[in-house]
Design a protein that fits this description.
Layout (H helix, E strand, L loop, with lengths): L4 H7 L2 H9 L8 E3 L2 E4 L2 E5 L12 H14 L14 H14 L3 E5 L2 H10 L7 E5 L4 H10 L2 E5 L4 H9 L7 E6 L11 H11 L1 E6 L14 H4 L8 E5 L9 E5 L1 H10 L1 H4 L6 H16 L2 H20 L10 E5 L3 H14 L1 E2 L1 E3 L10 E5 L6 H18 L1
Parallel strand pairs: 3-12, 5-6, 5-7, 7-8, 8-9
Antiparallel strand pairs: 1-2, 2-3, 4-10, 9-10, 11-14, 13-14
Helix pairs in contact: 3-12, 4-12, 5-6, 7-8, 13-15, 14-15
Bound molecules: pyridoxal-5'-phosphate.
Length: 392
């Protein structure tokens, strides 16, 4: 193979060398049963999945995926604009639009594409995007690709947003980008305050609710339902890979907006449609969210149980308001040691370090599922207590 600058960059990269040395990422479980996973033959409590409602292994979700595979085959075989569109795509989109109280919806094969699309498909290089500092990488990618100017505001801070907006020309097209529920922090956005600023200053609103849908709101419709604001955000984007128990993503909003996005979004035009089994699993999960509220009730009870245990242990959860629960450590080496100790004790968490989180917020990301048993939570807390005490 030819030597080249790019090859040398890859071979000598310090971040990759560190990752391979300490190996906290890219694990491959050999087996999974409920919230237990097996790594190198050892059973572990899975404390970091996004299967919030525990529907990933629900028999109806599995059956729906199997039936779709039989009926349609494994692939959608193309992009939606050409040969990839199928009746099951439209059916899921109609059901999602109905769920969110919007006129229309468009699904993609990954939430990353949907979130990018919702910005790149609408914004132009002459626009200004006001972005919460802590938004997901997919939204930053959409902003970057749109080439709009970006003004960052402090996380979840309407005053900081307002200050930035007031400095802007009223003639500019302005877009506000934020998350409904933040995946790392578990914080809920101050949606009513944001909507008020949006209304007063002509801001188009894009909200990523990947971690809100299924998790908050009386019937699991996410952040808009939580604040009684159904239908008031211009575009809701998100992922099917959390409470909706499969992979893929969606953008929901008014019909005219989605038709415009279908014309201009590169992620929508040039990427193959979501596969039959993915779409069928999401549709089944959506039906379960509507028909079986007990999953959400269990998630709420499990989260309360877990958080009250963490409080007794004196572990800082960064004010998490949802089932995404960060365990703040605030020191890179300590975070790594605690993460490793937990692996040794049979608890799987995800370590997150700057620049993924702000400096001094080195953390272990944990998330609660409706599928966690009381034993999972109590054993998990017990082991967390031991690991944190050892390195405090
Ligand atoms: C907030 C948020 N937005 C978007 C995505 C992207 O979704 P997907 O994993 O389906 O590509 C994720 C997933 O990690 C996420 O957490």
């Amino acid at each position: 193979m030819l030597d080249s600058l790019v090859r040398r960059r890859a071979v000598k990269d310090d971040s990759t060398a560190m990752r391979l040395k300490y190996s906290p990422y890219y694990h491959h479980f050999e087996r999974q049963d409920g919230c237990r996973v097996w790594l190198e033959g050892r059973e572990m409590i899975q404390l970091s999945s996004n299967d919030y409602l525990g529907l990933n292994q629900h028999p109806k979700v599995i059956e729906a995926g199997q039936k779709a595979l039989k009926k349609w085959g494994a692939s959608s075989t193309g992009s939606r604009i050409s040969n990839g569109g199928r009746a099951y795509h439209r059916r899921l989109e109609d059901k999602l639009a109905d769920f969110f109280g919007t006129q229309d919806c468009h699904i993609h094969s990954a939430g990353y594409l949907s979130c990018m699309s919702s910005i790149q498909g609408l914004a132009t290089r002459n626009d200004v995007v006001f972005a919460d500092r802590n938004i997901h990488s997919s939204l930053w990618s959409g902003i970057g690709m749109s080439r709009a100017r970006v003004e960052k505001f402090s996380h979840n801070d309407p005053n900081s947003l307002l200050r930035a907006v007031e400095l802007e020309s009223p003639k500019k097209a302005k877009i506000l980008v934020f998350e409904g529920v933040y995946s790392m922090e578990g914080h809920i956005a101050p949606l009513p305050e944001f909507l008020k600023i949006a209304q007063n200053h002509d801001l188009f609103t894009v909200m990523d609710d990947a971690h809100g849908v299924g998790v908050i709101g009386e019937t699991g419709r996410g952040t808009t339902e939580h604040f009684d604001c159904l239908g008031k955000v211009d575009l809701i984007c998100g992922s099917l890979s959390k409470a909706l128990a499969t992979t893929g993503g969606y953008v929901a909003g008014d019909k005219e907006l989605l038709e415009y996005m279908r014309t201009h979004s590169k992620q929508t035009i040039f990427s193959a449609a979501i596969s039959p089994a993915q779409a069928a699993c999401a549709e089944a999960a959506l039906e379960l969210i509507k028909a079986e509220p007990e999953h959400l009730t269990r998630l709420i009870n499990n989260t309360k149980h877990y958080k009250s245990g963490l409080e007794k242990l004196g572990i800082d959860t960064w004010g998490s308001q949802t089932a995404a629960v960060p365990l703040i450590i605030g020191d890179r080496l300590k975070a790594y040691k605690i993460w490793k100790e937990l692996i040794a004790q049979g608890v799987f968490t995800t370590i997150s370090l700057p620049p993924s989180v702000p400096p001094n917020k080195e953390l272990l990301r944990t998330a609660i599922s409706a599928a966690h048993t009381v034993e999972d939570i109590e054993q998990g807390l017990d082991r967390l207590g031991t690991a944190f005490n050892k390195f405090r």
